[in-house]
Every structure is written in structure tokens, then in C-alpha cells.
Write a structure and sequence with these properties.
mainly alpha, elongated, 206 residues, 10 helices, 0% strand
Length: 206
């Protein structure tokens, strides 16, 4: 009885194994990015999973890309933008409903009373926040950030600069006590604080 030659894995099985490895390697990184972009932990894991499902549907193309992780970050960023826009529209509908009933609606940022760096990031407009997070928390280059967000390198530079300036102002404006001295927040100090949110080495591999 002759020896049976092992069959080579089918293309579908190979693709599935490759994607499973990609999922295991990148899910935590994408969940962290989702948390920072959404400004809250609730829904971050689900958004990361949704992004990875979208990547799987395009896996034949993504696996041949120069940087599949950058592609996944771009997908997640677009999903986060859509999620935030939907949330804003819902809040506006609620505000209009109650104002029509003669109720007073308190307007204000949905952030904790004590403004830490995550809450301050949540108060930035989405594009500024995304540029700050990708450039400083995820250590992407300007070109990589531009690719993820679908904007020009020049726009990344200006949005990051303005975002860091706004972040420093938000952090400087916070006082634990009315008489507390200015904590001296600068753009450099704010950038260093955002860098403290970076993923660990295993999450940061590109």
C-alpha cells in the first residue's frame, strides 16, 4: 500500500488561517484605537470586531496589500466617524423632542467633571482627534495617518498641530480647585501625555 501524499491546504483554508492570525494579532490594537476615537470604552470592542469583519470580506485584496494593518485602521476610522455622526444626529433628535415639549435641555460636552487626557481627546472634533491619536498614541507617520484618514499629508500636519494646541488648552483650563495654579500644559507636554496611551509592543507591530 503506497504512502499517501499529504494534500496542500486549499486557498480558502490558507486565507482563513492567515486572517485568524491577523485577527489575533490586531484586535487589541484596533479596540484601543476605537476607544480613543469614540471617547469611551463602551462599544470599542464591537467596533474593532466590525472593522475586522469588513477586512475579512475584502481579505483576498487586503492580504496582498503593502500594509494590511494600515488598511484595517482606515476601515475602523471610517466606522468610528459614522458611529459618531449617528450618535450626534440621535442627540439632536432627542434635544429637538424635549425642546418641543417645553423642557430645558442642558447642553454641554459628555465628559467627566474631571478632565483627563481621554476626556479631553473626546472633546476634540473627530478629524483633529483622529490625527492626534494616530500620530502620537499610535506613532504613525504623517503619510500613514493621511492614508488611514483619506486626507492629504498637509491636512494631517495642520489638524495634528491644531488638535494638540486645543488639547493643551483643554488640559490647562482644568483646575481641581478654583485657586489651583496653572499646571503649565503645553503642546509638548500634551503630546507626551497622549504618547503614554500608546499600545504595548505586541499591539504596535506594523
Amino acid at each position: 500500500m503506497g504512502t499517501r501524499t499529504p494534500r496542500s491546504p486549499t486557498p480558502d483554508a490558507t486565507a482563513a488561517r492567515e486572517f485568524h492570525a491577523f485577527f489575533e494579532e490586531r484586535h487589541a490594537e484596533l479596540a484601543r484605537l476605537a476607544h480613543l476615537l469614540l471617547g469611551e470604552s463602551e462599544g470599542a470592542d464591537d467596533l474593532a470586531a466590525d472593522a475586522l469583519v469588513a477586512v475579512w470580506h475584502r481579505w483576498d485584496r487586503v492580504r496582498r496589500a503593502e500594509n494590511p494593518a494600515a488598511y484595517a485602521r482606515g476601515v475602523l476610522t471610517n466606522l468610528a466617524r459614522s458611529r459618531i455622526r449617528s450618535r450626534v444626529r440621535e442627540r439632536r433628535r432627542i434635544a429637538l423632542f424635549w425642546s418641543a415639549r417645553g423642557e430645558t435641555v442642558t447642553q454641554g460636552p459628555d465628559v467627566p467633571a474631571v478632565v483627563d487626557v481621554r476626556a479631553a481627546l473626546a472633546r476634540l472634533p473627530f478629524r483633529k482627534r483622529a490625527c492626534v491619536v494616530l500620530r502620537h498614541a499610535f506613532d504613525l507617520s504623517e503619510r500613514e495617518t493621511a492614508r488611514a484618514l483619506g486626507i492629504s499629508v498637509g491636512a494631517v500636519k495642520s489638524q495634528t498641530s491644531r488638535g494638540m494646541a486645543a488639547l493643551a488648552r483643554l488640559l490647562s483650563s482644568h483646575r481641581e480647585e478654583p485657586s489651583a495654579p496653572d499646571t503649565g500644559w503645553t503642546g509638548d507636554r500634551a503630546a507626551a501625555t497622549v504618547r503614554a496611551l500608546r499600545p504595548g509592543p505586541a499591539e504596535r507591530r506594523s
